[in-house]
Design a protein that fits this description.
- The protein has 13 helices and eight strands.
- The chain is α+β, with helices and mostly antiparallel strands.
- It folds into three domains: 145 residues, no CATH class; 123 residues, SH3 type barrels (Roll); 85 residues, 2-Layer Sandwich (Alpha-Beta Plaits).
- The strands form two sheets. The chain has a five-stranded antiparallel beta sheet with strand order 4-3-2-1-5.
Length: 398
C-alpha cells in the first residue's frame, strides 16, 4: 500500500483573520490559480498589489449590492405590495457599507502588509463591519415596523386594534434598537484587550457601582418603566384623543421619555411619559372612537319644543356627520327667566362630533330667528304705574 503524500502550502503574506486564513489555505491547496496569484503578487509593487486587492473588494461588494437591489427593484415594479419598496428604502444605505466591508474583510489576508499594520487593519474592518451590521439590523426592524403599519391602517373608521398594535410596535422598536446599539458597542469594546482587563477589574466593585448607577439613573429608568407600562397596559395609544391640562389633542408620538400631543390649532403639547401614570386625564377614544355631542340653548317659557325637536331630527338626517345612533332634544333645566334645552347627538369620532355640533347650533339658531323670534329669551317687568289707576279708583269710591 503506497503512502499518501500531502503538500502543505503557505500564504505569501501573514493573515490575522483566522476564519479567512483557513478558507484561503484550503483555496490555495485545491485551486490551480494559486501559483498564478503568487506570481502576480511578486511581480507587482506591494502598494500596487494592495490597491488592486482593495479595489477588487470594493467593486465586488458593490456588484453584489447592485444585484440584490436590482432584484428588489424588479419585484417592486411588478407588484403593488409595499414590502419590497420598504426593503429598498431602508436597506439601501446600510448595504452600501456592509457588503463592500465584508468583501474587504475577506480580502485583507491577500494584502502585502507588515504584521502590525495588517493586525490594525483587520481590527478596523471588524469594527466597521459590526457597526454596518448593527445599522443593517436597525433597518430590518424598521422594515418590520412598516409591514405592521401596512397591516394595521389608522385611516379606517374603527381603528382601535390598529392603535393598540401600533403603540406596542413603537415601544418594541425603540427597545430593540437600544439593545442592538448596546450589544454592538459591547462587542467593539471587548475586542480590545485593555477593555477586557478593565471589565474584569470592575467586577469586584459591581455591587457598589450598581447602587450608585441605580441612584443616578433613577429618573431615566422610571421613564423607561413607565414607557413599558404604557406600551402594554395602554392607557393611551397612538392617535388617541385626549384632554390634558385643559387642551384637546391627538397623541402624535410616544417615545420612551415623553409624549407629543397634536393640539387642534396645530400646536404641540409635550409631556413626560410619567405624567400618564401619575396624573388623571381624559381619553375620549379608550375603547371606541364613537362619542356623544351636546348643544345647549336657552329660550322663553312660551317656546314650542315639539317644533324645534322636529327641526333637529330633519337636520341630523340630512347630515353625513351623524352616525344615526343618538339624536334627541330634551328640556334639561328651568331657570328664573328661561328654559334650558339640550340637543344630544352622536358621531363616529370626536372631530365629526365637533363639526356636527357647530352645524346643529348654527342651523337651529337660524330656524328660531326665522320662525319663532318671539320665543327668544325675554325680560318681563311689571311697573308700579300699572297699579296706580286701580288705587285711585278705590280712593274715589271711598
Amino acid at each position: 500500500m503506497r503512502p499518501i503524500v500531502t503538500e502543505t502550502k503557505t500564504l505569501p503574506v501573514p493573515c490575522t483573520n483566522k476564519f479567512a486564513e483557513i478558507l484561503l489555505l484550503n483555496w490555495a491547496t485545491y485551486n490551480p490559480m494559486d501559483g498564478q496569484l503568487q506570481a502576480w503578487s511578486h511581480q507587482l509593487q506591494p502598494w500596487a498589489w494592495n490597491l488592486i486587492i482593495v479595489g477588487c473588494a470594493i467593486i465586488l461588494g458593490f456588484v453584489v449590492k447592485f444585484i440584490i437591489t436590482g432584484i428588489l427593484h424588479f419585484y417592486k415594479n411588478t407588484t403593488d405590495y409595499s414590502l419590497f419598496r420598504s426593503i429598498i428604502s431602508h436597506l439601501s444605505k446600510p448595504l452600501n457599507y456592509f457588503v463592500p466591508l465584508l468583501a474587504l474583510n475577506f480580502m485583507v489576508p491577500l494584502l502585502l502588509l507588515s504584521k502590525p499594520f495588517a493586525t490594525g487593519l483587520d481590527r478596523t474592518t471588524d469594527i466597521l463591519i459590526v457597526i454596518a451590521f448593527a445599522a443593517l439590523l436597525i433597518s430590518t426592524v424598521k422594515i418590520f415596523e412598516d409591514y405592521v403599519y401596512h397591516l394595521y391602517d389608522l385611516t379606517i373608521a374603527d381603528n382601535l386594534v390598529s392603535r393598540k398594535v401600533r403603540t406596542q410596535v413603537v415601544f418594541i422598536r425603540k427597545v430593540i434598537i437600544i439593545l442592538i446599539v448596546v450589544v454592538s458597542l459591547a462587542i467593539i469594546l471587548l475586542s480590545f484587550n485593555s477593555v477586557r482587563k478593565l471589565g474584569a477589574g470592575l467586577l469586584t466593585g459591581v455591587g457598589i457601582g450598581g447602587i450608585i448607577l441605580g441612584i443616578a439613573a433613577q429618573k431615566p429608568l422610571g421613564n423607561l418603566l413607565a414607557g413599558l407600562q404604557i406600551a402594554f397596559t395602554q392607557p393611551i395609544r397612538i392617535d388617541d384623543v385626549l384632554v390634558v391640562e385643559g387642551e384637546w389633542g391627538r397623541v402624535e408620538e410616544i417615545t420612551l421619555t415623553y409624549v407629543v400631543l397634536a393640539i387642534w390649532d396645530q400646536r404641540r403639547l409635550v409631556l413626560p411619559i410619567t405624567y400618564f401614570t401619575e396624573k388623571p386625564f381624559q381619553n375620549w377614544t379608550r375603547t371606541t372612537s364613537q362619542i356623544l355631542g351636546t348643544v345647549f340653548f336657552y329660550v322663553d317659557y312660551t317656546f314650542p319644543v315639539d317644533g324645534i325637536r322636529a327641526e333637529l331630527d330633519r337636520l341630523l338626517k340630512s347630515s353625513k356627520l351623524w352616525d344615526k345612533r343618538v339624536g334627541i332634544l330634551q328640556v334639561t333645566d328651568w331657570k328664573p327667566d328661561v328654559i334650558e334645552l339640550r340637543a344630544l347627538m352622536s358621531a363616529s369620532n370626536s372631530s365629526d362630533a365637533f363639526d356636527l355640533r357647530c352645524y346643529v347650533r348654527e342651523n337651529l339658531l337660524k330656524y328660531i330667528t326665522a320662525h319663532m323670534p318671539q320665543s327668544l329669551p325675554q325680560k318681563r317687568y311689571r311697573g308700579v304705574e300699572d297699579d296706580q289707576p286701580s288705587s285711585a279708583n278705590e280712593n274715589q269710591h271711598g
